[in-house]
Design brief:
Porin; alpha+beta; eight-stranded antiparallel β-barrel; disordered N terminus
């Protein structure tokens, strides 16, 4: 009995030690977020002067660390577009494993939300349509934190879209602009079962 209790006690101790850095995030394996906001566009292909933009983002991440982002940008005076990119936020598990937690939900979530988006931008949504490279940077500032770290946040980000004029798939005339934006969003955790999935096991019988 003692042999069974020792590993259990050690596991409970380790979990208790690191729980403050998790804040319930490992209770579910997928995080879904949605955000709506606006920002300022610099050097738009059509209007080089600063213009406005409305954007909406939908994101899905496994273990709150990596996933996909789908966004739409509507620019009344410029190039509206659709964006599909990878969303990578490597700090969460790295800080947790190395014991780098600040043991405060607000600060841990703020730091762990720092990430990079890398993918493709499809637009403008007119005859000048083309495909360009997109790279983005951002951070989610927590406004309300509930169970499993779900809640509301304010996303502050920057997104650069570029494609040379000589690129075959580029929008007509090429493009190279920046979007600086802020968006209000919500965060929801779900148990998708993807992380724990494994193929069916077969037992080999030796006769």
């Amino acid at each position: 009995m003692l042999f069974l209790l020792v590993p259990s006690a050690l596991a409970s101790s380790v979990r208790a030690q690191f729980e403050p850095s998790i804040h319930g995030r490992l209770d579910h394996d997928m995080v879904l977020t949605g955000a709506l906001g606006g920002g300022v566009v610099l050097n738009d292909r059509v209007h080089p002067d600063p213009t406005g933009s409305v954007s909406i983002e939908l994101r899905a991440r496994l273990v709150d660390m990596a996933g996909l982002m789908l966004a739409a940008e509507w620019r009344p005076e410029g190039d509206s577009r659709i964006i599909l990119a990878a969303d990578v936020r490597p700090l969460f598990l790295a800080r947790w494993i190395l014991g780098g937690s600040l043991h405060r939900a607000y600060l841990d979530l703020l730091l762990d939300s720092i990430g990079i988006d890398l993918g493709a931008a499809f637009g403008p949504l007119d005859p000048d349509f083309g495909v360009a490279l997109v790279i983005g940077f951002g951070v989610d500032v927590p406004l309300y934190i509930g169970p499993h770290a779900d809640g509301l946040f304010l996303r502050l980000g920057a997104r650069h879209v570029t494609a040379g004029v000589t690129y075959q798939s580029a929008p007509r005339g090429g493009t190279s602009d920046w979007l600086l934006y802020a968006a209000l969003g919500g965060r929801f955790s779900v148990a998708s079962g993807i992380v724990s999935w494994e193929p069916e096991r077969y037992e080999v019988t030796v006769e």
